[in-house]
Design brief:
This protein is α/β, with parallel strands linked by helices. The chain has a single domain (2-195), classed as HUPs (Rossmann fold, 3-Layer(aba) Sandwich). Helix content is 46%, strand content 20%. Strands 3-2-1-4-5 form a 5-stranded parallel β-sheet, sandwiched between helices. A two-stranded antiparallel sheet has the order 6-7. Strand 4 (98-100), helix 5 (114-124) and strand 5 (127-129) form a beta-alpha-beta unit. Helix 3 (60-73) runs antiparallel to helix 4 (77-92) and helix 7 (163-175) crosses helix 8. The chain is globular, with a radius of gyration of 16 Å.
Length: 198
């Protein structure tokens, strides 16, 4: 069965690809708004794997609405959730039998509720799979250490192709660099540089 996996080039989505590959023909799909070329990082990360890769165009109006929400809230959580739901909806509308993401059990955002997963499946005739939903951060980190090579650093210095990079760029364009620092907390990101088991 063909499965489209939302792929950022980070450790969670990369580990999800490895776990799913035992059961599905996995295609790594990077969602993009066309605001920056940051999605190319995921393409480079995918080159070292046996997986097919492709970008998926998202509606820029969704990014703009998410940035407005972030400015109103003063934090990114709800805006990122809006974008993730939109990306899953778009992915479910493609030719895949199943769609997946790298959300973990302990993720605050993005997350997919049971009701949203069921709705996605019913409306699009696909299976929604969250292979890391039973794994906490410690378990994921252990599996990543065994199977992937990663680079770790502050969000602004790590090349990634997740929603955050384009949302940060749009937020800076809309409200200035200070707004980015105000809305997004300092945190570390990972970028996959290789697959040890591939």
């Amino acid at each position: 069965m063909d499965l489209g996996l939302l792929y950022s080039g980070g450790k969670d989505s990369s580990l999800a690809a490895l776990l799913l590959s035992a059961f599905y023909d996995v295609t790594l799909v990077t969602a993009r708004f066309g605001i920056t070329d940051d999605w190319r990082h995921a393409e480079r990360a995918a080159e070292g794997t046996a997986f097919d890769f492709r970008p998926l165009e998202l509606d820029r109006a969704v990014a703009e609405a998410a940035v407005e929400r972030m400015l109103e809230d003063g934090y990114p959580r709800n805006g990122i959730q809006q974008v993730h739901v939109h990306a899953l909806e778009r992915l479910a509308g493609e030719e895949f039998n199943a769609v997946a993401d790298g959300t973990r059990r302990d993720d605050r955002v993005p997350s997919v509720s049971r009701a949203r997963a069921q709705s996605l499946e019913d409306r699009h005739g696909v299976d929604y799979v969250a292979p890391l939903s039973g794994f906490g951060r410690g378990a994921v980190d252990g599996l990543v250490e065994e199977n992937l090579t990663v680079e770790v650093g502050p969000s602004e210095s790590i090349e990634r192709a997740d929603y955050e990079a384009e949302l940060r760029a749009l937020l800076a364009e809309r409200a200035g660099a200070e707004a980015v620092a105000d809305v997004f907390p300092d945190h570390e990101q990972t970028s996959v540089t290789g697959f040890r088991s591939r």
